[in-house]
Specification:
By secondary structure, the chain is α/β, with parallel strands linked by helices. It has three domains: 6-92, no CATH class; 118-319, Rossmann fold (3-Layer(aba) Sandwich); 335-407, Winged helix-like DNA-binding domain superfamily/Winged helix DNA-binding domain (Arc Repressor Mutant, subunit A, Orthogonal Bundle), CATH 1.10.10.10. The chain is built from 18 helices and twelve strands. The strands form two sheets. It has a nine-stranded mixed sheet, with helices on both faces. The protein has a three-stranded antiparallel sheet with strand order 10-12-11. Helix 8 (157-172) links the parallel strand 3 (146-151) and strand 4. The relative contact order is 0.08.
Length: 409
């Protein structure tokens, strides 16, 4: 029999090292679950439902050992998947990852922990293996009153303004603003909440110590100081296109509802909205110009199950407690809106230009002469009409108001 080559020997050594760490974790007691789940966040990719099913069937420690070759592979695991896990096994050091996040003032939160947001369990086998977090606030408590504000990276000034206004408005009403810390709408929403001294959660597609985009390093640090930064990936992990897409399911599940502000047809924020719909969360959209490509995705959402909103009050009305109603919407109230019906009929009977006598006004208003005269003196005292000898006319101010009202739609 030929002796194994250097590559095979290196693979065997890596597997042996990973297996030893898995065995050590199993003997470690209650913390073994955290160590194993931390290892699995580096061995596997987020949102893998096969991994979620194996976790449910085998448990985290047994799954870790199976994936690194310590015992029989998980049922249905392909050779290609096992080979990929073997390549990652030599970089496994979950204790170092846990120490790294602790050095940042953070922690690793697992299902079953007091801080675990139970609404993430709605994802089923696609739920996160665990969440790496920076920030002092309780993720579970904040997620109970959280709303996602997402949208285009290359948004317009309108989108930036709306996202920031929503962020500050929701924060002022005691809601936690959750987003992905990206350029555009995400960043504006976070800044709006921070500017109102409010609560905000950033869900990253990288490790919590790898700010992405780089231009938002300061913003992400501010979120960590004033709110919470979370990620599925262990420290030092970098984002990929697929990780951004998978990150969106966490944003949708973590929150009570999702608001989309500007999105093209292929926008990643629509992935968040679809996940929210699938999970039974409220999905909302802010309309924009029908000529804007950046609003096409939002308008398509609104043609389906999405609900049109224009401000934070309307968001709270949809996702808040019973009785959290948005204020009634109406145009400006003018003086004649407050008149009693009879006085209003007499005022409407007066010509826009010129004068009229009491008899003609009574006939036009369908009232008696004496009642019409009474209402005319009432209108005179309120500043709507003037008397010209035995005739009546509108005041100059009322003529201007009346002409603008007649000219409107």
């Amino acid at each position: 029999m030929n002796a194994p080559g250097p590559a095979a020997a290196a693979d065997d050594a890596s597997a042996a090292t990973a297996s030893a760490r898995a065995a050590q974790a199993e003997r470690a007691g209650p913390d073994a679950v955290h160590v194993a789940r931390a290892a699995l966040t580096r061995l596997t990719e987020p949102g893998d439902e096969a991994v979620g099913r194996w976790l449910r069937e085998l448990g985290p420690v047994a799954l870790w050992r199976a994936l690194v070759g310590e015992c029989a592979p998980p049922p249905g695991a392909s050779p290609r998947r096992l080979a990929g896990c073997a390549l990652r096994a030599d970089r496994l050091d979950p204790a170092a990852d846990l120490a790294a996040v602790e050095a940042l003032g953070g922690r690793f939160i697992c299902p079953g922990d007091p801080e675990w947001p139970s609404q993430l369990d709605d994802l089923g086998d696609a739920r996160p293996i665990g969440l790496w977090a920076r920030g002092r606030a309780s993720l579970r408590t904040w997620a109970l009153r959280s709303v996602a504000v997402v949208g285009a990276r290359a948004c317009t000034e309108y989108g930036t303004h709306i996202a920031a206004t929503l962020g500050s408005g929701l924060a002022e009403r005691g809601w936690v603003v959750t987003s992905g810390a990206a350029y555009g709408v995400d960043g504006a929403a976070h800044r709006g909440a921070l500017g109102a001294d409010g609560a905000t959660i950033a869900v990253l597609a990288s490790g919590v110590n790898i700010p992405y985009p780089r231009g938002h390093a300061e913003l992400i640090d501010r979120v960590a100081e004033q709110g919470v930064v979370v990620a599925e990936l262990p420290p030092d992990s970098h984002p990929t296109r697929s990780r951004f897409v998978l990150r969106n399911r966490v944003i949708a599940a973590l929150t009570r509802g999702t608001v989309v502000v500007e999105a093209q047809y292929r926008s990643g924020s629509l992935v968040t909205a679809r996940w929210a719909q699938r999970l039974g969360r409220c999905v909302m959209g802010v309309p924009g110009p029908v000529t804007s490509g950046l609003s096409e995705g939002v308008h398509e959402l609104l043609r389906g199950e999405g609900v049109l909103i224009s401000d934070a009050d309307e968001v709270v009305e949809l996702i808040g407690a019973m009785g959290d109603l948005a204020p009634a919407r109406r145009g400006p109230v003018v003086g004649r809106d407050l008149l009693a019906p009879a006085a209003g009929r007499v005022l409407d009977a007066l010509p826009a230009r010129g004068t009229a006598d009491t008899r003609a006004l009574a006939r036009s208003a369908g009232m008696s002469h004496d009642e019409t005269l009474t209402k005319l003196y009432e209108l005179l005292s309120l500043g709507f009409v003037e008397r010209a000898r035995d005739r009546w006319e509108l005041t100059r101010a009322e003529r201007r108001t009346g002409s603008s009202r007649r000219g409107g739609s």
